Amino acid sequence: MSRPRRRRSIAVAALAAIGAGALAAPGLAAKDDLDLISRATGPAGAPVDGNAIVPSISANGARVAFDTDADNISAEDNNAVRNIFVRDASTNETIFVSRATGAAGAAGDGSSRNPAISADGRYVVFQSDADNLSPDDNNAFTNVFVRDLVAGTTTLVSRASGPGGAGANDNATEPDISSDGRYVVFQSGADNLSPDDNNAVSNIFVRDLVNDTTTLVSRAPGLAGAAADDNSFNPAISGDGNRVAFQSSANNLSAEDNDAVVNVYVRDIDSGAVVFVSRATGAAGAPGDASSFDPDISPSGRYVAFSSSADNLSAEDNNAFFNIFLRDLDAATTELVTRANGPGGAGADGNSFNPVAADNGRVAFDSDADNLSPDDNNAFRSVLVRDSVNDTTELISRGPGAAGVAADQGSFLPSTTPDGRYVAFQSLATNLLPGTVPGIRNIYRRDVLGDAPLATPVCKTVPLAPTGGGGGGNITLSSRQLLINQRIGQAAIRRLNAVEARLNGGLQARDLCGYAIGPAQLGPGIVTGQAAASLAPAAPADPAPIVDPGRRGSGDTVTLSVRQLLINQRIYQAALRRARGIEARLDAGLTGGDVRNGAVTQGKLFDRLQILAAVPAPEPAPSTTEIPPRRGGGDPGAVTLSAAQLRINQRIAQAGVREANALIRRLETGISGDDLRPGTLTAADLG
Questions:
Q1: What is the DSSP letter of 102?
Q2: What one-character DSSP code corresponds to residue 31?
Q3: In sequence order, what are the residues at sequence separation of 6 or more whose Cβ sits closer than 8 angstroms to the Cβ of residue 503?
Q4: Do the strands 83-88 and 63-68 form a parallel or antiparallel pair, or are they unpaired?
Q5: How far apart are alpha carbons 269 and 297 in whole angstroms?
Q6: What class, spelled out in words, does domain 8-338+348-447 have in CATH?
Q7: To 10 degrees, what angle do helices 643-669 and 479-504 make?
Q8: pLDDT value at position 538?
């Protein structure tokens, strides 16, 4: 999640060939603050005595994972290999990650690299040469592991489907992780991870850590699409784990790929669709005329940033350098990122690599260019951020303060939070903060945006259903009209049953409005503080309404008995009772028991709210909806049905349908904080 690219060697090699958790809130920070991350525990812990590289930052910016060959930042690091650490900026703790299961698990006996941290800071995925991190690792290859910092477990990820699936029979590297830590993507040359992988090339895989499945990603469109016919690398996964961006030399992934260059793709896991990304603006924009690398996908899955030497992706790209581009998968636009301030800012005069996309159109990257910011006044590689909404480009690798001095050595590999507030990066600079060792790469975190105003709940308004009119006179009731009436009432009950089943099954995070849950809705045992990130809610889709077929058609007339009339009326009345019962349940306020355990993640919490500590508390039982029983009765016999009586029956049924539709729209729109009873949302309900 929000991991940096580890691709510089690939991009530079290509250039040569061409041209020559939520466990803590952030520490108190303000705009333009700069923190040293690569240091031992404590507010003034010793800086690393060996290179620290590859930062990966959590969604709220509090935790940053990195790898280092330093041996002075943890007494538990008792070997001479590279290890993974997490720095918690709120507690000033530096946590040893690359170890076997257990709070005091053995340190890895081989080097570990390339960490990526989940949005809540709980899970860290990494690759390792060690063979003592998991008893399931019984080979000599580089494997992918995930460390749960709460449970203290280390799990082998690079394996075939099943809880005891065979380990990969080739190296597995370049991992990335979904927001909730459930899905891990990685690349591997192994041919035993999926029965669909029937070639000898490097492929992309996703491991579902809940269902213990391993899925081939680098394949042609369709759920059973052919495996890629050439190498695929550099995967990045969306926050929900459903979209994976990667680069590939294959020519069978898209019919639109009509050249021999490396291209960028996005695969939708659920649908099997493959989107061709490295192309000019438009749904059918021209494919890039040179290779594209280093893809990163935003947590929402909407934006893909990548590096390319193509010169036909944007009319504003008028140089021969590697540039960064941002593809909006919804709008089908491709935008030049590496440019100076302004909508028509000059293109970069040097190569740019390692882009990372936020959810709001901001892209962090590193660049050799010296014309992107007037504050970049040296010849070293710098880290910058382009805001594609406001057309600004800002220097990030600089000392504290709005006018901090530019780094006096190269800075690389940015990692950003989903809202772009914090950017972590590595640097060789000696002038950013005092106390660092010359010649040693360190990890820094910059607060780029500072605190934002509190957001208001993002919820749609459900309009009131219109009411109808009426008329008088007698009417002949046909069998078709009778069935229409009954079906309207039965449809109302079916829809209400579906709504009630959804409530009884427990609401999911998608059932809550963005920014909906504030302190009043949190139960005992939860301490809160400020955090930086909130995820915008997805636009809901209203369910298809039930269409009243009207009183059309003809047919045989029927003799309507009193019992039949009462049955019809009771069907309609039951629909209304159920609608009103469910509405009363919502109006009374949903309890924590109505929310599925673990369904509410940081993105659904009130803006800048973050869990600091969660003490288990008893889970309240879900509220219930009482439906009065249908009592029988009615004497047989004929009845004269007037037009007014018929319309009364129809309106009762239609009112039930309207109320059912309104309730379903209410759920689809998202439950607001007002719909949750204050103090009932416990730690068990938070992801």
A1: S
A2: T
A3: 582, 585, 590, 594, 622, 625
A4: antiparallel
A5: 14
A6: mainly beta
A7: 30
A8: 33
Q: Which of 304-308, 558-562, 637-641 has the lowest mean pLDDT?
A: 637-641
Closest C-alpha to 27, from 39, 16, 14, 18: 39
Coil, strand or helix at 352: strand
Distance from C-alpha of 458 to C-alpha of 455, rounded to nearest angstrom: 8
Q: Cβ-count burial of 101 within 10 angstroms (0-12 exposed, 13-18 middle, 19+ buried)?
A: middle
Model confidence pLDDT, tens digit, residues 430-475: 999 999 999 999 999 999 998 866 555 556 555 544 444 444 556 6
* AA identity, residue 585: R
Question: What pLDDT is stored for residue 476 in this prediction?
Answer: 65
Least confident of 447-451, 584-588, 616-620: 616-620
Q: First-to-last CA distance in the chain? A: 16
pLDDT score of 566 more than 80: no
Which amino acid, one-letter code, is at 32? D
Of residues 309 and 502, more confidently modeled = 309
Q: Residue 311 has what DSSP assignment?
A: S
Residue 166 tokens read as 């065979």
Q: Which amino acid is at 575?
A: A
> How many angstroms separate the CA atoms of 426 and 475, rounded?
82
Q: Which two tokens stand for residue 280?
A: 């000019």
User: Do 525 and 618 form a contact (C-beta atoms < 8 A)?
Assistant: no
State the chain's maximal CA–CA distance in angstroms. Answer: 100
pLDDT of residue 527: 55
CB 228 within 8 A of CB 203: yes
On average, the pLDDT of the chain sits at 82
In this predicted structure, what is the pLDDT of residue 20? 32
Give the separation between CA 125 and CA 119, rounded to whole angstroms: 12
Give me the percent of the chain exceeding a pLDDT of 90: 57
Q: Identify the pLDDT of residue 662.
A: 77
Count of residues making up the chain: 687
Q: Is the pLDDT of residue 628 over 70?
A: no
Residue 126, token pair as written in the block: 């990494």
pLDDT given for residue 18 in this prediction: 30
What gap in Å lies between CA 597 and CA 669, rounded to an integer? Answer: 21
Of residues 478 and 360, more confidence is placed in 360
Rounded Cα–Cα distance for residues 42 and 218 (Å) = 44
Q: Which of 86, 55, 120, 64 is nearest to 533 (CA)?
A: 120
Sequence-distant (≥ 6) Cβ neighbours of residue 427 within 8 angstroms: 383, 397, 407, 409, 410, 411, 412, 441, 442, 444
Asked if pLDDT for residue 646 goes beyond 80, the answer is no
In 348-434, DSSP assigns E strands to 352-357, 362-367, 382-387, 392-395, 411-416, 422-427
Give, for 563, the enclosing helix (H) or strand (E): helix 562-588
Which residue in this structure is represented by tokens 């809940």?
210
Give the model's pLDDT for residue 524. 59
Given a cut of 50, whether residue 23 has pLDDT beyond it is no
pLDDT at residue 270, rounded to an integer = 94
pLDDT at residue number 543:
36
Task: Name every residue whose Cβ is closer than 8 Å to that of residue 247 and which is 6 or more positions away in sequence.
Answer: 232, 233, 234, 262, 263, 264, 265, 292, 293, 294, 295, 306
Whether 411 and 427 have beta carbons less than 8 Å apart is answered as yes
How many Å apart are CA 390 and CA 222, to the nearest integer?
38
Domain residue spans in the chain? 8-338+348-447, 479-685
Q: Helix or strand or coil: residue 103?
A: coil
Alpha-carbon distance of 3 to 54, in angstroms, equals 8
Q: Taking the C-alpha atoms of 229, 235, 237 and 241 in order, what is their torsion angle to the nearest 10 degrees? A: 40
